[in-house]
Amino acid sequence: MPAPLNVGMIGYGFMGRAHTNAYLKVPRFFPELGRRPALKALCGRNRERAVDFAEQWGYESVETDWRALVEREDIDLVDIGSPNDSHREIALAAAANGKWVLCEKPLAMNVAEAEEMTAAVEAAGVPNMVWFNYRRVPAVALARQIVDEGRIGRPFHYRATYLQDWTIAGDIPQGGETLWRLDAAVAGSGVTGDLLAHSIDTAMWLNGPITRVTADTETFVTERVHQETGALQPVGIDDACMFLARFANGSLATFESTRYARGRKNFSTFELNGNDGSVHFDLEDPQYLDFFEHTRPETGGQVPGHLTGWRRIHVTNSEHPYMDKWWVPGCTIGYEHTFINALADFLAAAGEDIPAQPDFRCALQTQRVCDAVLASARTGEWVETGVEL
């Protein structure tokens, strides 16, 4: 029987549910892992809601102060699923107490916080990871495999979109437990940190470092009532963001994100075009990866002209990333499974005493791009990201 890994989960919202489900499911589908998560404690500010969540999901105990949780000797791993403004303080305390640390994205409110958090977990020598779960969509992992196999060749263009529509109404308030993502004091930024952080992480995972950006942002509703105070307050987050980017490998990129794309719920796409091929992915149709093959690396020859065309790959075979752990070919997996796959990778890496990816240092690079995007939007100039090459 694998040794237990006692989990302290901070947060009972959307991410608290997604992460908790992963802790419950990972030992059943990845039984070879050396540690078995045990739901030891759930932390939330509202005791009644925290107790309800703990009872529903099977946590042994409840805390209402995260400080008490990170200091408990019976907690091995702290999972930070709380709003962005709390990530830094919790991570520093968890690392100081020798806990493994998992953190929801974005890592921090800004680069300065992210650097401090990265230094803390590295100095403490504790396993750490940031939940950029879209890397663990099998089709996205297959895109990375295709790139690594040289099937794209020299990259020329990368383009990404991340579109939603849930904040279009002007009477939606900001702040509080449910709408803190619209409050700049808590979220740090709008779509840049919340949505584009995913797009940026995926892009650099597939195509290497982003070195400089030029950006523009827009806030369409400039004042909203705050849920907690009832006062009409300025809106400080970006509702929409578009930026151009340069990668270290010389390729060009466009990124677009908005919460004002009527009809789009979680529309996240990317396309990478290279000399020898292209890949395209759509998160709202996640079981497929579109692949265009022009040159085959095995032979160096071109695909015959009468056979060229985009190929739609149904990513459900046991040969595809992660799928040997799930169902038979033709049966798809979904959103929740990306967290399970991510957690399995984290536990496997920790068992071998190697950094799990994306760790805090990796997420710091994404934070640097996000900060550069927001800086460029303020100045209208190209901004160097400072990402490590």
SSE layout and pairings?
Elements: E1 3-10, H1 14-29, E2 35-43, H2 47-57, E3 61-63, H3 66-71, E4 77-80, H4 87-96, E5 100-103, H5 111-124, E6 128-130, H6 138-148, E7 155-163, H7 184-187, H8 191-207, E8 210-218, E9 223-225, E10 232-234, E11 240-247, E12 252-258, E13 267-274, E14 277-282, E15 288-293, E16 310-314, H9 335-351, H10 360-379, E17 383-384
Parallel strand pairs: 1-2, 1-4, 2-3, 4-5, 5-6, 7-12
Antiparallel strand pairs: 7-13, 8-11, 8-17, 9-10, 11-12, 13-14, 14-15, 15-16
Helix pairs in contact: 1-9, 4-5, 5-10, 6-8, 8-10
What would you say this structure looks like, in words?
By secondary structure, the protein is α/β, with parallel strands linked by helices. The chain has two domains: 3-133, Rossmann fold; 136-384, Dihydrodipicolinate Reductase, domain 2 (2-Layer Sandwich), CATH 3.30.360. Helices cover 32% and strands 25% of the residues. The protein has helices spanning 14-29, 47-57, 66-71, 87-96, 111-124, 138-148, 184-187, 191-207, 335-351, 360-379; strands spanning 3-10, 35-43, 61-63, 77-80, 100-103, 128-130, 155-163, 210-218, 223-225, 232-234, 240-247, 252-258, 267-274, 277-282, 288-293, 310-314, 383-384. Strands 16-15-14-13-7-12-11-8-17 form a nine-stranded mixed β-sheet. β9 (223-225) and β10 form a beta hairpin. The two termini are 42 Å apart. The relative contact order is 0.16.
